[in-house]
Design brief:
Blueprint lengths: L3 H16 L5 E2 H13 L4 H13 L3 E6 L7 E6 L1 H28 L3
Antiparallel strand pairs: 1-3, 2-3
Helix pairs in contact: 1-2, 1-3, 1-4
């Protein structure tokens, strides 16, 4: 059984925040960035609720911009509170990851 989708849901908020550290972006570009990092395709039905939740929490802010051609886009950027949350929660995630790796290595006899 492949559990990567479940694991991703647990950390997607942090990954979205981390993807915005390089500057503002819009949903499709965020999804492409995460897919390019090897996390698979993240569909809009998964990504946009995360972006809305992060915006409601004050961790990102968004601005709608009309486009010359095609539909406008909502651009997201990290707030200072979002940066602090990413630093704090990212450190906790890395500690958790280290613990998981240690237990898995022990189980593999390493």
């Amino acid at each position: 059984m492949d559990r990567r989708a479940s694991w991703l849901k647990g950390v997607l908020d942090l990954l979205v925040l981390a993807s915005l550290t390089r500057g503002e972006s819009y949903g499709y570009e965020i999804a492409k960035t995460l897919a390019g990092a090897g996390l698979g395709q993240i569909k809009g039905g998964t990504l946009y609720p995360v972006l809305n939740r992060l915006e409601e929490a004050g961790l990102v802010s968004a601005e709608f911009r009309a486009a010359d051609r095609g539909p406008g886009r909502r651009y997201y950027h990290l707030t200072e509170e979002g940066r602090m949350t990413l630093a704090e929660q990212g450190a906790l995630w890395l500690e958790f990851d280290e613990s998981v790796r240690a237990v898995l290595a022990q189980g593999a006899g390493r």
